[in-house]
Design brief:
With about 290 residues, the chain is of the alpha/beta class. The protein has 11 helices and 12 strands. The radius of gyration is 19 Å and the shape is globular. Bound molecules: NADP nicotinamide-adenine-dinucleotide phosphate.
């Protein structure tokens, strides 16, 4: 039987490329969008579709070109929506409307865990709540994935936090819940493969929890070298310059959010990556040096 086709939006991003990888491994024929014809999706066995995932006409063309009846939808407040909730909502709505017009039989939407519970300063999550509501009344068959903080934030050169030997940095030293973007893809594969169990349902995507010292211990164990944990910026600067993100961290630090647990997620993806697993999974520091000697 021919593999089922899935179209992954924003396939070159941190989420998209690992969702493509997990869906390929699960046996799907994977199509991925990028604005650039020079993308490297082909090297991953992904069929590249040149498409700006925020533009309705591009989405219509990508769905027609791929013939996919399953779609993984991402929106992005900071880059694609240029820090506007209204624009992010319109971009997500365009993807939902395009999928409906193309007769998609399963749309997986990536939202954020506990998006409705953050305080009013956390503007970057508002469109996620509105898009979940829009999706639920759209009539399209859907399921929703709600990830917590990505492990990928620990190696994020574009946000001035490349992973370096001997040190892990994050915006909080305190207890946090983390997930690998690869496990978002593995959860999407479970939902696409079992529509009877998942259509209309929501899943919190949480792989591991611990404080930054425990993250450092995990890297130390994997690399065999001592590792220090430190703040990527002092908390008073986080409060002054990253007010929105600061208030998101207050929900993690003071209210122990999000409420979901790794134990619950592991009922769906039993071998969800821990911090140690994730360092082995990425394999390299930002400069290309191997983590496992
Ligand atoms: N970081 C976390 O801990 C976390 C946790 C939960 C949820 N999230 C969610 O994750 C989402 C972000 O996903 P991500 O990290 O995978 O994104 P990302 O890595 O920042 O995506 C980068 C890609 O976006 C495309 N892009 C950049 N600017 C664009 C523009 N102006 N118009 C259209 N496309 C543009 C580019 O692809 P091309 O050049 O190839 O087109 C680029 O490669 C957000 O919705 C966020 O809320 C993040």
């Amino acid at each position: 039987m021919a593999a089922e086709k899935v179209l992954v939006l924003n396939a070159t991003g941190k989420v998209g490329r690992n969702v493509c990888r997990a869906l390929k491994e699960a046996g799907f024929e994977v199509f991925g969008t990028s604005r650039s014809p020079q993308n490297k999706l082909g090297q991953m066995g992904v069929e590249a579709v040149v498409c700006n995932y925020t533009v309705r006409a591009d989405l219509d063309r990508a769905l027609a070109q791929s013939g996919a009846k399953k779609i993984f939808v991402i929106t992005d407040f900071f880059a694609a929506a240029k820090s506007s909730s209204t624009v992010e909502f319109e971009q997500g709505k365009a993807a939902i409307d395009a999928a409906k017009a193309a007769g998609v039989n399963h749309l997986v939407f990536m939202s954020v865990a506990d998006a409705e519970f953050f305080d009013a300063h956390v503007t970057h999550l508002k469109a996620k709540v509105a898009l979940e509501a829009y999706l639920k009344q759209s009539g399209i068959p859907f399921s929703i994935l709600r990830p917590c903080a990505f492990f990928e934030n620990l190696d994020d050169a574009s946000n001035w936090n490349p992973l370096k030997k001997g040190r892990v940095k994050f915006l909080s030293l305190k207890h946090c819940k983390y997930v690998a973007t690869y496990d978002i893809g593995r959860a999407a594969a479970v939902q696409f493969q079992n529509p009877e169990a998942w259509l209309g349902k929501t899943l919190d995507v949480i792989g591991w929890e611990g404080d930054l010292q425990q993250v450092a211990q995990a890297l130390s164990k994997v690399s065999g070298a001592p590792v220090k944990a430190s703040l990527a910026m002092p908390v008073f600067l986080r409060r002054l310059f990253l007010k929105d993100i600061h208030h998101m961290f207050l929900y993690y630090e003071e209210q122990h959010g999000p409420r979901g647990t790794p134990q619950a997620f592991k009922r769906v993806v039993p071998d969800a990556l821990s911090a140690e697993d994730w360092f082995r999974f990425i394999g390299h520091y930002a400069n290309g040096e191997r983590i496992v000697p």
